[in-house]
Amino acid sequence: MRINEVLRMALGSLGVNKLRSFLTMSGITIGVFSVIGVMTAVAALRNSIETGLSFLGTNMFQFAKFPVTGGGDGFQRRRYQLRRDITLAQAMRYQKLMAGASDVICLKAFDRTFGGQAVYNGRKTTPDLTFGGTNEHFLTANQYTIDQGRNFTPDDIELAHPVILIGQGIVKKLFPSENPLGKMIKIKDRTYTVIGTFAEKGSQFGNSKDDIGMIPLTRYLNDYGRERETVNIATQAASQLVYNETIEKAITAMRIVRDLKPEDENDFELYSNDSLIGAFAKVADVIAAGSFVISGIALLAAGVGIMNIMLVSVTERTKEIGIRKSIGARKKSILFQFLIEAVAISLAGGMMGILLGVAGGNGVALLLKASAVFPWNWAFIGLVVCSGIGVGFGYYPAWKAASLDPIEALRSE
Question: How far apart are CA 184 and CA 195, in angstroms?
């Protein structure tokens, strides 16, 4: 028989039992969906990781009291809370010790409890603004640019001027039809003069980077208390070539300003864009491994289902096989036909799983403000695996069908 005839007969037999074929391929669909969905979401998030997690500027690293994740829950977070705050005096001394090693050292402190709400002329923003104090290097350290007005000056920091830089989220809500420069807005019952606006930055992982207001660090600490605030210190290396050397000098400087003895552990956190990306990659790998285990179990069960349904099909079509053999059908043609049926069921389930997985994974990615992707490599691997399942679990039923004695088969009722 010609191959096109074998294909036609194999696919035609699947159409006879549509419901049974659909239920059989559903197991494959579930297994493929679980892994493709997870890998699609992970791939989409990986594509957005440079902008989503790279909140520090080029060649930047940062010291802080808490890890970037906040320290977790329970005992672990309590351990970080018991650390001494990084004070402004320590940060200023660190700047002096790092003179010559780095020209960009950004000091910043944020309100981590309630955020802030900006008010102007009866208009209000949401009460969850990112609000804090910083110095003139905030733009470089956090990848912001000025849209209107000016940046902080050293005098603003030294003299604790009551001035503020605001993001486009605040601009749109408080100044929809007027220039914000020179206007006085109120945050936490204190008044600040707008001297500049940040250029629009958009949202990353569902959080707006434009709902932000920053005042001089000295003014922030004067207004809201130095005793309850810890300062984060972001430092930029002169180039990638001296990046590691600068980190070593910075750690030494931090240990000096924190009065740590040689045998003492660091009582501060150090992180960079690379460390954040690495942390995300570890989480993604754990999630991917879990999805592989789940999909592997589902695909194994689906493969057993394919073998079972093909054995039932061979039993039901024993007489048909005997007739075909009696009129000259070769053993390999029968084998090929039943293998095609098994592979077709597996591939159909696989393609359905891929489509649902891509849709589901990209749906999660879009909710997290990441760009949609199509994981071609994983889709290809999925199809190859499904083909392998069809061949592996369909071979024995196909071999059994091909090995039937035509005379015995013709006697079957």
Answer: 10
CA distance 371 to 44: 6
Contact 397, 13 (CB under 8 A): no
**CA–CA dist 21, 45 (Å, integer):** 36
Q: How far apart are the C-alpha atoms of 25 and 80, rounded to whole Å?
A: 51
**Shortest CA distance to 344 belongs to which of 3, 30, 34, 8?**
8
* pLDDT single digits (tens) 15-31: 566 777 777 778 788 88
* Helix or strand (DSSP H, E) at 204: strand 203-204
Q: What single DSSP character describes residue 122? A: T
Neighbours of 254 (CB within 10 A): 24
Strand ranges for 217-309 from DSSP E: 232-236, 269-272
Task: Give the integer Cα–Cα distance in Å for 207 and 192.
Answer: 25
End-to-end Cα distance, the chain: 26
What count of Cα atoms within 13 Å lies in the side-chain half-sphere of residue 72?
A: 7
Q: Flag whether the pTM goes above 0.85.
A: no
- For residue 305, the model assigns a pLDDT of 82
